[in-house]
Amino acid sequence: MPSSPTTPPSRVLLVEDHDMVAEAIGQALERADGITVVARARSIAEALAETQRHKPDVVVLDRRLPDGDAIGAIGELSTTGARVLVLTGEASASVATRVAEAGGAGLVLKSSRLDELETAVRQVAAGEVAFGPGLLAGVLDRLTGRVRGAGTPLTAREQETLVLLAHGASTEEIGERLGVTRNTVRNHVQRILDKLGARSKLEAVAIARREGLVD
């Protein structure tokens, strides 16, 4: 009898800027049957380039990278057909919903056991989602409108402004960092307040932290 065709391994791109974490994850995935790590990237920019180069099945993506919040890059990373599994130090229903809305296939805590990460990679590679029962329930509630989220999504520039606000930057400092005028910064801040339903910068930052928009 002819032998059944062998299923090719799931090809994984690992995006993690911390060398020790990347080494531990990479070794665990390489030891797993049916999974091969084809490349590693240390930033969003590298991840986009390596995704185009290697066309992986799954991108295991650290949320916080040197060049920003990687959730915003999920859509572009997915253009080659890759499914994205996000790694995060702190998970909430708000963050998981952002991942799902961006097109991500799962969210795993960095504190999870390596075998749990391996299982999540297999699930994502098989076309399933890997959010965990608690997180998945929260995502479904928010996506179906049973729980109100933060409102209209922020633009990339508004997100940058919000992160700077959360770090205590003044209007002048934000303008210098972003290369825009003070009036432009004020416009960004006002739109942030409107979208988050906040009455002050301080309240906006508090809401953003609660919703997982900033650390």
Word description of this protein:
The structure is a single chain. Helix 1 links the parallel strand 1 and strand 2. The model has no long low-confidence stretch (mean pLDDT 86). The protein starts with 9 loop residues before the first strand and ends in a 5-residue tail after the last helix. It has helices at 19-31, 44-54, 74-77, 93-102, 114-125, 133-143, 156-166, 171-178, 182-196, 201-210; strands at 10-15, 35-41, 58-62, 64-65, 68-69, 83-88, 106-109. Strands 2-1-3-6-7 form a 5-stranded parallel beta sheet, sandwiched between helices. It has a two-stranded antiparallel sheet with strand order 4-5. With 215 residues, the chain is of the alpha/beta class.
Question: Which structural class fits the helix and strand makeup?
Answer: alpha/beta
Radius of gyration: 19 Å
Helix and strand sequence: EHEHEEEHEHEHHHHHH
In the predicted model, the low-confidence regions spanning at least 5 consecutive residues are none
Percent of residues in helices = 40-55%
Mean pLDDT metric: 86
Oligomer: single chain
- Beta-strand residue fraction: 5-15%
For the biggest β-sheet, the strand order reads 2-1-3-6-7
Query: How many helix segments?
Result: 10
Instruction: Report how far apart the termini are.
Output: 58 Å
Q: Kindly state the number of beta strands.
A: 7
Major β-sheet, in short?
A: 5 strands, parallel
Based on CA inertia axes, which overall geometry fits? elongated
